[in-house]
Design goal:
alpha/beta; 14 helices; about 55% helix; Transaldolase_2
């Protein structure tokens, strides 16, 4: 078996962190059962020039730059949905999902919207972009406004992927809001939710802002956090009797430290739920020669856990990483709008 085949055999589900058509095709051949997208992914695809014909057609249609950006996003995600639809049908709706992220500019700190207004827009846009799509997940960030939108979206039947999640508190509040909303549905047969826990960004944070951690603990914070939240998630849903799995998506799975093996996080969280890996990480896994085994329930030593619990300021980490994460999505969306505006000028 190939390394990715052994990873899947542990119980891990593989999602592709891209909706670029050629990469989707390749990932399907490797056993991926879903995909995720975000503004950075969409912007990079458009910037590559591969969708120039669509861009030019939309420019001539009279749409403004923002409308064109969302039409292109909708097209790319819809194309991926079509490719994963057979998996959705075979799994009864448990797999085969593709995520569509709502407008990150809603969270622009320099924008005019209040938290309540942002929440209202998330609800409006979530319902709009979910309508008519069988296997589309709507990605909502675990910001104050995003979390406040989850109950209403879940009640309306929208399948949700809560993203930009770094802490247990974000997870618990998001999960509870979605569950409240789900219980307002007429039935729970198609109820599915996922929670995207970011890993490597936490270790980047501690390497820069928590240098007092020992060498044994440094680089383990993101994994410890993800594994603890995974256990909470397993426990919460165990007695609900739902037909579909409510899962974590392990995100930010690529290593940022050049001294780390590129498969560090993939190896450490093998065994259950979903890993969403960018194309280059899947390539690295395939070339690694590793035979993966179930490791998700293997925790760091008690001494390492105690040190992390003592030294880590979770609130400060949450504030920093959420602001950074929002910025990492706002800037690509702004870049996409600038790119469309530039193409408009070229055609004028």
């Amino acid at each position: 078996m190939s390394p990715l085949e052994t990873l899947l055999k542990t119980g891990t589900k593989l999602f592709l962190d891209s909706v670029e058509p050629a990469e989707v095709d390749k990932s399907l051949g490797w056993g991926a059962t879903g995909a995720t997208s975000n503004p950075a992914i969409i912007s990079a695809i458009i910037d590559s020039g591969s969708r120039n014909a669509e861009v030019e057609s939309l420019l001539k249609s009279g749409l403004d730059d923002e409308a064109i950006a969302w039409q292109l996003t909708d097209q790319l995600v819809s194309e991926a949905e079509e490719k994963f639809l057979p998996i959705y049908k075979r799994s009864g709706g448990n797999e085969g999902w593709v995520s569509f992220e709502l407008d990150p500019l809603l969270e622009d700190p320099d924008g005019p919207l209040s938290t309540a207004e942002r929440t209202a827009k998330y609800i409006e846009l979530g319902k709009r972009w979910a309508k008519g799509h069988t296997n589309r997940m709507i990605k909502v960030p675990a910001t104050e406004a995003g979390i406040d939108a989850l109950e209403e979206l879940a009640a309306a039947g929208v399948t949700l992927n809560v993203t930009l999640m770094f802490t247990e508190d974000q997870y618990t509040r998001s999960r509870d809001a979605i569950w409240r909303g789900a219980q307002r549905r007429s039935d729970l047969n198609r109820f599915k939710s996922v929670y995207s826990i970011f890993i490597s960004r936490i270790d980047v944070f501690t390497s820069k802002h928590l240098e007092s951690l020992s060498s044994e603990a440094q680089g383990q914070v993101g994994l410890l956090n993800a594994k603890r939240i995974w256990k909470l998630n397993q426990s919460f849903w165990a007695d609900k009797g739902l037909p579909l799995q409510q899962e974590l998506i392990f995100a930010s799975t690529g290593t940022k430290d050049p001294s780390d093996s590129p498969t560090k996080y993939v190896e450490a969280i093998a065994g259950s739920d979903i890993q969403t890996n960018p194309p280059e990480l899947n390539e690295a896994v395939q070339k690694s020669g590793i035979t993966f085994s179930h490791t998700l329930d293997q925790m760091p030593s008690q001494a390492v856990q105690a040190e992390i619990d003592e030294k880590l300021d979770v609130a400060a980490m949450h504030e920093f990483l959420l602001a950074e994460g929002v910025d990492k999505f706002i800037k690509p969306q702004q870049a996409l709008l600038r790119l469309i505006a530039k193409k408009r000028e070229e055609l004028a």
